[in-house]
Amino acid sequence: MIITYYGAQFFKVQFGDITLAFNPISKDSKLKPSRFGADIVFVSAHHQDFNGIDQVTHGDKKPFAVSGPGEYEVRGVFIKGLPSVSNYGGKDLINTIYTVSLENMNICFLGALNSPELKNETVEALDEVDILFVPIGGDGVLDPAKAYKLAVSLEPKIIIPMHYDDAKLKAFLKEAGENPKPESKLTLKKKDLDGKEGDIFVLDSSKE
Question: What integer is the mean pLDDT of 170-176?
């Protein structure tokens, strides 16, 4: 599995010949969009910073779009979408938390979540989390302190912060007592998770 960060909450996850895109930045956003072809695209909240499905429709790739709660199976990828809330952009939005199982690893993508209080049934549905993507930037999503507290409570093996500026990232890492070196991308196999307990990996979109 290869994870690449494109800023905000926009990630590419590649495994084998399948490419996933999470919360692609649309061309209508003030943020910088990027383009590549994806097989499955996830949109957690309907906002131009997260719903650029056209940006990951490229060449012969026309992705299957997952944009709300429910259970899905696409090309052997098992997906659950769990409802939550966001106040991103100052508007009350439905935010979908996604869990994705692939290569015997479980991804949890919190999207534009702004409340650290998850429903019991949501926590139970998350199962065992291997890789957790958590927003830490405040302003309608979790702030660094709440983000770290929630992240640790879910007991992931790896935590990947997203949607941050330098100050928010510094505050998040201070909460964690860690200072990992930013990387351009993260390459993982199941065995790489052995012995990890809430280890933080910082992906820097400017290094892409």
Answer: 96
